[in-house]
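Q: Structure tokens for this one, please.
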Amino acid sequence: MKKVERHIGLLVTAAVVSVFSAHTLSGQTTLSVGQIERATLSTGDTLEFTFAAGDDFLVYGEAIQTSMDLVVSLVNSDGQQLGQWDGTERGAEPFSQTIREADTFTLRVAPFEDEEGDFSIQILQLEQKSGDPDQLADQLMFAYDRPGGPGGAVRVWRDGRTLASKTYGLADLTHGIEFDAGTPTNIGSTSKQFTAFAVMLEQDAGRLTLDDALHDYFPDFPDFGETITVRNLLSHTSGLREFLNLYSITGIDTRSLTRDDVLRAVERQPALQNSPGTEYNYNNTAFSLAAQIVEQTSGQDFDDYVRKNIFEPLGMSNSYVRMSPNSIIPGRSDGYTPGDNGWIAPGDLGGAVGAGGIYASVEDLERWGQNLLSPRVGTKEMVEEMMTEIMLENGEGSGYGLGLRIDEQRGLRRVSHGGADVSHRSMIVYYPEIDAGLTVQSNASTFNSSGTAFDLAVAYFGDAMEPEETLDASGGEFDP
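A: Here is the predicted structure, written as tokens:
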């Protein structure tokens, strides 16, 4: 495991603030990085810790909710709230922030609603962001390289060459198995680009077109009075309703859903939420249907199709389509979320094939990314269509292509997609103009994959980007 060596001292002053008066808890307390401060809060009290940080600092810490549920807030010297954290009722409440400009900051710890009890707090990381990309990766992944905790992986490539391959923490807490570059991990909605690519392969083979009507493949679906095309499915412009939301409001555990449940959700939908092509509404239902269309046109199960037509030709030997939560994935990372007594493994979403459901290693995701930038499987024209922004009927851009998000980062064209299953977090980013990309993965639900990926992109590819504009000094949350 990696260790961040540079720590900068922290002076913290503690005081309890009540509705009527302020009084010190135990006088002024000096807290160094790594030192644990224990305290008790009554209903209505707020305990404040102030600390100083310099320009471009990373701050990470944890409040341990021993016998109470609490809320942690971070404010600057002007009283502006920069972040607030309120996750589990017991156990660790992690907090993190990127500090843009030097200032004195205050951590406010308060009971949730009318609770009272004991807690402890410590700052584990307080240091300036490194100018070295590899060291910055270690800093940003700090919280995912802790003993006995879930981990993650980083992979960066450019011009056909791997620039960085880093792994952190554990893939399996029960058996103490560490993450490595070949560990299959649930990439969640990052899977959508594979579904879109499979559809494009079927179109290239002449077995379907993007302009085919959904009703051609699912004749038992309601006649909504408007035509939904395959292109609408892959661009989140179908007007179909989100099946996960529909089942969630009924109280059904979404981990138990099947692909048939997706079909039933559409069959029971009385009307579209908008006319196809008029609005962008992120939609997992549509991608589940797209995978089933590939099965109809190819005559193969979706996992077999992707394995034979994408994974095997690209040498992605540690990548799998998980057709159900009961499917066995060899050597996979388990996903974890904070619980009252430590990390718990809640399992994966059900019914996610096509919208999610792929497990892949970071070394395999580099192979996939290299293929999108210089296709060996598929064609350049297919990839270009996937990476072309879909325009809505009113002429506005949707910010999305086919299974991929389209935007810019400091003047450089960026194509990306993130993923969030129950506990896994994922992001893969491409910069086609410079033949570069990167991916970050974690098996912890607390991981902010997009923030980490985009920060690392600046570190590794900043030479191709425009100068950074003046940013809000408040900074933002990061994944240490």
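A few notes: The first strand starts at residue 13 and ends at 17. The chain has two domains: 1-128, 185-464.
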